[in-house]
């Protein structure tokens, strides 16, 4: 059996070597390049392809892969929003993702960022770096005094709720598909509007599917409390960033942490030191004391990377054997 993997990063290699040791009967080929119509032929002769990229899996790329005989595609990440599923269906693809690699990784990052915003660590760290060790005016707020609105109570949202409970915050939640236990605890509000009206801070854990596109926009922001704190570690397209910037400018939004950005492809996970950002908005956001920008690193822990590699390669083997792995995507 042969599996070919695209976009393998150096930090994934230890996990990949470990998987190879455990699966000596599988030949693994890989490249650092992403799957494109041009690189598809690298997978020729393989039973399955393993991929991770933020670039779209277009009809052209999928067709090129199918033309070299590969119609098993295992994603090493959770998000499937960049796959052309119509094309995948038409071409007879099997697709898997890794829906649960480490919800804690993402939930922890979001709550670390929320705590940092509340305790104003960015301006305080900047003062300390300049040897200004005075307290004022960089006074913080306490987590337990906040009503935190969690939008999306899947695996990640629920971990975030547990962390919030540890801090003693009041949690309110909204999900189109409520979780029974949380329902019994009475955590859900009836609508997003209710959540907007009550929350001091709002953190998002929903996928970037079309119906969630620009969920956070000038209308939803207008329904929020004055001085609301926003956290987005989920998908960039959940927010109309211009409306968020307007909210920051007017003070309606007091603080904002973003780990994702609608225009992040080609921007995040690149070294811009000594160079100008191609996008002035990101430079503006990074420069603000009350905004924390991280380049889509919420997921980025040793545990998560290990799971992403192991689970995706296991699924690729299952597809190659004609089986349906538990993490196959239904479409
Ligand atoms: C996903 O798993 O879809 C993520 O957003 C993390 C990705 C950057 C590997």
Automatic annotation (TrEMBL):
Superkingdom classification of source: Bacteria
EC primary class: oxidoreductase
Domain D-isomer specific 2-hydroxyacid dehydrogenase catalytic intervals: 8-329
InterPro entries for this protein: D-isomer_2_OHA_DH_cat_dom, D-isomer_DH_CS, D-isomer_DH_CS1, D-isomer_DH_NAD-bd, D-LDH-like, NAD(P)-bd_dom_sf
Species classification: Bacteria, Bacillati, Bacillota, Bacilli, Lactobacillales
Gene Ontology molecular function: D-lactate dehydrogenase (NAD+) activity; NAD binding
One Pfam family, short name: 2-Hacid_dh_C
EC number: 1.1.1.28
Residues covered by the D-isomer specific 2-hydroxyacid dehydrogenase NAD-binding domain: 114-298
Family membership: Belongs to the D-isomer specific 2-hydroxyacid dehydrogenase family.
Record keywords, A-Z: NAD, Oxidoreductase
Protein name (database record): D-lactate dehydrogenase
């Amino acid at each position: 059996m042969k599996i070919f993997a695209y976009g393998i990063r150096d930090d994934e290699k230890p996990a990949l070597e470990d998987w190879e040791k455990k699966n000596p009967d599988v030949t693994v080929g890989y490249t650092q390049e992403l799957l494109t119509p041009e690189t598809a032929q690298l997978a020729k002769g393989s039973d399955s392809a393993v991929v991770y990229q933020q670039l779209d899996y277009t009809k052209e790329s999928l067709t090129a892969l199918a033309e070299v005989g590969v119609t098993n595609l295992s994603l090493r990440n959770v998000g499937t929003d960049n796959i052309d599923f119509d094309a995948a269906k038409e071409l007879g693809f099997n697709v898997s993702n890794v829906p649960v690699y480490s919800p804690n990784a993402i939930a922890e990052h979001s709550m670390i960022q929320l705590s940092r915003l509340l305790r104003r660590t960015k301006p305080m760290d900047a003062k300390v770096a300049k040897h200004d060790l005075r307290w004022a005016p960089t006074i913080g707020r306490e987590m337990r005094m906040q009503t935190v609105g969690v939008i999306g109570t899947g695996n990640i949202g629920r971990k975030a709720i547990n962390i919030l409970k540890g801090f003693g915050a009041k949690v309110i939640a909204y999900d189109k598909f409520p979780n029974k236990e949380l329902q019994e605890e009475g955590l859900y509000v009836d609508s997003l509007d209710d959540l907007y009206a009550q929350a001091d801070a709002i953190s998002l854990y929903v996928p970037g599917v079309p119906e969630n596109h620009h969920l956070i926009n000038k209308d939803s922001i207008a329904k929020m409390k004055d001085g609301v704190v926003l956290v987005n570690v989920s998908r960039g397209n959940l927010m109309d960033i211009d409306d968020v910037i307007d909210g920051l400018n007017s003070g309606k939004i007091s603080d904002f942490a973003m780990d994702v950005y609608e225009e992040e492809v080609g921007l995040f996970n690149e070294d811009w030191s000594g160079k100008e950002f191609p996008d002035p908005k990101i430079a503006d956001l990074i420069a603000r004391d009350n905004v924390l920008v991280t380049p889509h690193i919420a997921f980025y822990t040793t545990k998560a990377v290990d799971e992403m590699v192991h689970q995706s390669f296991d699924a690729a083997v299952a597809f190659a054997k004609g089986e349906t792995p538990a993490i196959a995507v239904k479409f």
